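Morning!

This is the sequence you dropped in the shared folder:
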Amino acid sequence: MKKPPLKKFYDLIWFVLLTTFVLYISMLLLNYYKPLSNYRISFLFLNNHTQVQKPSKFSINSSEIINYTSIVNAENITPPPPLIRENITEVVITKPSTENLDPCSGKYIYAYDLPSIFNEDLVKGCKSLNKWFDMCPYLSNLGLGKRVIEKTKRKVLLKNSWYVTNQFSLEVIFHQIMKDYKCLTNDSSIASAIYVPYYAGLDVGQYLWEYNVTMRDSTPKKLANWLGEQVEWKKMLGKDHFMVGGRIGFDFRRRTENSSDWGTKLMFLAETSNMSFLPLETSTYENDFPIPYPTYFHPSKDKEIHHWQERMRRMKRTNLFSFAGAPRPNSTYSIRSVLIQHCQSYNKSCKLLNCYVNNQNKCDDPVHVMKVFQSSVFCLQPPGDSYTRRSTFDSILGGCIPVFFNQNSAYKQYLWHLPKNGSTYSVFISEEDVKRNRTIIHDTLSSFSKKQVLAMREEVIRIIPRISYRKPGSRLEIIEDAFDVAVKSVLERIEGIRRKEFL
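The structure's back. Tokens below.
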């Protein structure tokens, strides 16, 4: 028996409605089902026929009318304005960029596994590294030296963050921290920078006196030959490499072959001359980027830094200024003797810590040094054997405002770590003015108002984390220390070179 025509008509309507409903639900599920957000899908509606196909590019003639396109992204990314091309609608689900998902994108560092003669063997032979004293105690505890244990009742330091750290231990400390760098990779092909863990300062330190240039240049030349054979070096001829030097840059840039000349020619070798070099002090070369001397403070947690900063803010400072150091009687250009005499003349306002008394170096004792700096408003920082000195960073650590007498002591050195405007955290007095008695240091420092002093001290305390190297094996959660600032800056420099020359 045949169905009535009206019955056929109703059946057709229900079929169309049911099909439309199923199609609508399917599209709704595809749009909101999260696992599918990692794929790009296109739905094309053309002449009442539906098909799913791979997205394809199509040209749009200027005479065609564009009204609507819907962009759907399951990751809640704000869609661009909708477009339509006649009766064709494209719905797109896009895969998020992998760069946005990888927190180490652009930060990966590959560290060479150098032969042990370039680092580990130097530490093992620590007794011969310095002509004047034994470096072995200073290289213990991953380069930090012995932990400080205070015997005084009135504690000057925090309990667990202080070590007897030598200023020439930077290469070891930096290398040990790098081993726990969160974006260290074993795949050099994805690395943004290549780290060369050569202990150049420890190496040259043992040959600076009474050795000819052949001996001084022996290990640097071996390193250069080794680097030249590496695939990583050939990629950019060393321009994506960086190395830390635990001495001033002058020690690594000997121009002649005369044994009477100072240092090695490490940074003049072809395989190393393109590297970013991070010494303690620059020799005004465009690839030298000085980083802070290591201090005695090596925190392992953010709260230790915060605690120390707050302590420096509350400290009662009874001395207007102080000087910690030793005279340079054989130096015609040094103003240290003048500063010592001036400090002694104003002994009610100035605290003098003479480093060498009874053949003991009191400036090698963190408790003595920090006690002086914590009690002083200003700390005199004249040049030493070179323009810079480790005491600058010790004084900052003590919340003491540094007073410089040469522009090269800080302002032209630590551009990554210290504020660009030196007057925000320090005072400058010309060496010539001191030598010619045109300036009385006491009067100059007394002329600053209480408001100016507080502002400078707050800036000094603010930069304490940026000049401190954390304890190797630890990671700070929010704060950036001297290591973090150096790595971040060298990555930015290398990326700039890559964009300029290799893209």
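Headline: Confidence is low (pLDDT under 50) at residues 32-80, 82-93.

More detail when I'm at my desk.
O.
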